[in-house]
Design goal:
alpha/beta, 2 domains
Length: 243
Amino acid sequence: MTQQTWLEGAISIEAVLQGRSRDIERVYIQQGKWNRTQARLLQELKRAGISVEKVTAEFIEEKAGGKSHGGIIAMAGPRRFVSLAEMVADTAVPFIVMLDGFEDPFNFGQAVRALYAAGVGGIVVRPRNWLSATNVVARSSAGASELVPMAVAETAVAAADFFREQGLVVACTAVTGSQPVDKVDLTMPLFLLIGGEKRGITRSFMDQADLRLQIPYGRQFQHSLGAAASAAIIGYEIMRQRR
């Protein structure tokens, strides 16, 4: 059976069209809902040959998982993934991130949003990941989850082994034995693992990483930053250095 999912809001639907991340089977728009954003999107859908159906507000509310749909939703197919090899093909200095162990789809989407804005070349996830919660991830990432190339790896170690063979430096965040992100050269081909708040990164992965990174604080503070905030800070430091 084909895996289907609902997308909510013009931003998410437009991102799917732009990123070609999945097939859109049909779009539903609430009767009486019409604005410039939707008018532009409907023109794009028409050019793509995607059917649009006007429905009641009750239909939209029944299918939508949230309240930010703006009167437009879409039925879409499964996410298309690329291979790990495709992520580094034709890229002189790859910057690839694996997001592993995130406990919440909103935080996952926020991390993807920040990394995409910072110029990440691709996101790696495990087979069981938050992409099953497409609605939440697409909305919290402002569509970035449908724009950035994504690949699947069974484990973080498997992904690290592959990218190391391709000449990438394997990095992760760590408290001990680590260097501040603003004091390390991050302009080399890089594979970065960012772990979730609860499970974090395993000791075995830290031991085999080429580079351990930490985020310096401006005052004494014993608690670590959330995974999405950490992804944003490290992503933008990499972007700053590469510019």
